[in-house]
Amino acid sequence: MPAVSDRRVSRDDRLDAVLHALSDRTRRALLRRLAERGPAMVTELAAPFDMTRVAVAKHLRVLESAGLVSRTIEGRIHRCSMSAEPLREIEHWLDDYRVFWTRKLDALARFAESEDTIARPAAESEAAVRAGGRRKGRA
Predict the structure, then answer these.
(1) What are the pLDDT digits (tens) for 24-45?
(2) Which residues contact 31 (CB under 8 A, 6 or more apart)?
């Protein structure tokens, strides 16, 4: 039984790290840039931001520790690329909640449809009464 518990803790730790990494808009922007354009040098990634390369490098380290970014070093050139696997883990985690919300939304749709079915005959009856009342008034 401890093996399952240990696996659960490590999965939770990974989820925590990924969610923490994604909680910052700069890190999300860095990740989006890597997803859209592919691998890039740290200097290229830092260019659009009003911060030092050191600050961008710190953000990249957080993304790396979450497994969202990998880095290759060729001499003085550090090239970063995105790894999607941690995002798949988040997607699997969200799937549990997707089932919950799908059930809730399906129940709401059924309720709205039943209310619409009940309200429609009542509205038609009221319209008929109003129409009949107007005819009597005119005669």
Answers:
(1) 999 999 999 999 999 999 999 9
(2) 22, 63, 68, 69, 82
